[in-house]
Amino acid sequence: xxxxxxFALPAALxxxxxxxxxxxxxxxxxxxxxxxxxxxxxxxxxxxxxxKVVRELRAIVxxxxxxxxxxxxxxxxxxxxxxxxxxxxxxxESVITRLNGQIETTNFELRQSRxxxxxxxxxxxxxxxKIAALExxxxxxxxxxxxxxxxxxxxxxxxxxGGSPQADFDRARGLMLSGDYDGAEAAFEAFVATHTNTAQxxxxxxxxxxxxxxxxxxxxxxxxxxxxxxxWPTTAWAPDGVLELSRSLIALNRAxxxxxxLAELSRRYPSAAPSIQSRAAAARTQAxxx
Length: 290
Fold this sequence. Notes:
With 290 residues, the chain is mostly helical. It has helices at residues 2-34, 41-67, 78-135, 142-147, 165-177, 181-194, 201-215, 218-229, 238-251, 255-268, 274-287.
């Protein structure tokens, strides 16, 4: 009885499975055919982009391997690069505009400076002329100034009066004080030619040299100053006469003789006025005295 049951159970189970098989097979087939693709359209595009990137990276790696040179990977962000270049170009245009403005301002200031320089040069030339005229009166002793008549310039003076030495000297000095240097030069030349050995002859040579300096006749001026200081007089105008001689020698490019004259000035007239000493120091510098 037991053995019969053992054989009957597998047979029943096999029968039931055979009966159920046709019913479940179509169900499984229907389930398999109704399943959707797990990759939608976006995932497919994403995969394609990733594959493209991988291909590009492989090409870059192979390029570096084949050429042996480092490969620089630059982003292909064209729009961004164009925008960056446009911004830089705008900055450069702004800088150029600012520089052009600064250049125009500088050119304007240079033109103003040039005009001022021209004006200053004109003023300097006028001042030099005035200084040259004033130097004529440098070192004038008070007594000589007091001896000049107070009515100079009231009437024309004749440089060749032929009067006394003092009168002729006073007339020549009057012409100089009135600014008539040409007339004073002629008067002093007439004086030294007419009165060759008087108390005023040496000083007349000195003032003649002054008028020649104003005219720029350096050779004649040096000759006049040499005649004035011959014997190294101890008058008030003598130190200035020695100094003027050295300056005339410097103008004649005779620096060595000018330095010797300046040395004699310090030795012969150690107590010269401070103005004479300062001008002598400037002359030594100009002549490059050792």
